[in-house]
Amino acid sequence: MTETLPPPSFRPLYEQIKILITQSLVAGEWKPGEAIPSEVELAARFRVSQGTVRKAIDELASEHILVRRQGKGTYVASHSEPSYQYRFLRVMPDSGEKLHPHSVLVDVRKGRASAEIARALAIKAASPVHVILRVLEFRGRPLILDEMVLAASRFPGLTVPKLEEYKGSMYSFYEAVYGLRMIRAEERIRAVAADAGAAAHLRVVPGTPLLCVDRIAFTYGDMPVEWRRGLCVTDGFSYFNELA
Amino acid sequence: MTETLPPPSFRPLYEQIKILITQSLVAGEWKPGEAIPSEVELAARFRVSQGTVRKAIDELASEHILVRRQGKGTYVASHSEPSYQYRFLRVMPDSGEKLHPHSVLVDVRKGRASAEIARALAIKAASPVHVILRVLEFRGRPLILDEMVLAASRFPGLTVPKLEEYKGSMYSFYEAVYGLRMIRAEERIRAVAADAGAAAHLRVVPGTPLLCVDRIAFTYGDMPVEWRRGLCVTDGFSYFNELA
DNA sequence: GAGTGGTCTAGACCACCCC
DNA sequence: GGGTGGTCTAGACCACTCT
Question: B189 vs A211: CB contact, 8 Å cut-off?
C-alpha cells in the first residue's frame, strides 16, 4: 500500500517544514503530550512566514501527529491521553455503548521471527522477538485474543512486570517506556473458525466464526514496529469502519 | 456515529461557502465529472477572497466530494471515473493483485422495509423497497454475495434491464440514473458461518466462516440511501483497512 | 500565452484560554 | 490583557495544462 514515489521535481517549503518538525519529534525534542513552540516562534526559527508553518502543522494535525488546541497551543499527540487511548480499536458493542476493555496478560515469551513477520517488521528472518499474548475483556467477558510480536532489539528489557503496569493500552506502553509513538496501522481482516486454544481463551465452542485481524503498526517515517494478530468474537460486537 | 452538535456560536465564512457549493451540487448545477467554476469566479460570485474559496474547496476535496487537477480546474468527483470505480470496496486479494470484480445479478425484487432497515434508511417501517441480490466474482470465482436494499421512492422505475447495463459499479448506476452520488459509508463487520443459500452462491461448504459486512451508504448531507449486507469469502482475500 | 490550481508572504482582526 | 490558534484578505509568483 505504501509506495515509493519518483523524486518530486518540486519541493514546497511547507513540506520541508513538515520534515523538520517530524525530525524534532523523532529526536524527542518535544515529547508526547507536550506543547511544541507557537507558530510565530517556529516561523522565526525556520525563517518562513507564519502561514507556511500553519500549513505544515495543519497537515501534521490531520495525520493525528500533532493536536491543535485553540487558545492554548499545539501539542504532540499521545496514546496516553484518554481520547487517544483506544484510537486503533475498531471493535465496538452493537449496543452503541462505549467500549472500555480490560487487558489480561496470558503469556510473554521470547521467540524468533518467522519469514512473514520478519518481512512485516522489516527485520531479518529468525531475528529475536518478543511475543505477547493477552485477552481483552469487556464487562468480564473475553472478547479478543491478541498476539503481538515485537523486534527484541527495539524493546530491550521488556518484562512482564513492566507490561503489567500499562495493562490499559499497549501503545501508551511503547510510547512511555520505549519512546515509540505509533502513528498509523494497516489491518487485514479475515473470517476464521476458532481452534481449540482460541476457543478456550474466548470461552466459545471450537469452530465458532471469529474475525482474524492482522495488523502492522508504524511509527514516524513509516517504520514498522508491531505485528499483531487479533482473534475476535463478534457476538454482540462488530468491527466498525467508516469509508470516506 | 454521526452526532448533531449544539448550534455553533461562530460560523466561519469558508464553512458557509462550503454549504453554498454543496447546495449547488445537490441542485445539480454541476454534475459528477464536470468542472466547477474556477476559484476566482467563485470568489467573485460569493464576494469573498480567493483564499476563502480555496479553503472551502480544500475541505470538500479532502472529503472526496471535489477533485482538484492542477492547471485544469476543480471537478465534481464521480464513481464513473476509473479511480473512483471501486472506492468503497475494501476486499482485496492477499497476492496484492488489483481487484477487478465482475458483477452477476441474482435477483431483483420488491419488498417492504424491516424495522432495522427502515431505521438505517430513515424511512417508515414497511415502506416499499427494492431488494437486489448479486454476486461479485473475481477471475470467475464467486467472492461476495451482496444484498442491497433501496427505498422505492428514491429509485422509481428500477428494473433489471437498467441494472444490467451498469454491472460494474452500483454507485455509478445510482449516480448516472438517479443523480445520487454516494459520498461516504459506514460498515460493521462480523464473522458468520455460511448458511446453505450463501454456501451455494459462493461455492463453499455450509458452515465456512465468512465476513458479514453491513453497510449504510450516504449521499450529500448525510442522507442514507442504501443498506447493504455482503457475505464474503476470505480464502486468499482479506478486508483491508488503514488506521490513521 | 492564457488560464488554472499551488505556494508564500504580510498584515489585520477574531475567538478562545488563562492569569 | 497577553498569548495562542483561527479566519480573512490582497497580492506576488510558481507549476501545470492546453491551445
Answer: yes
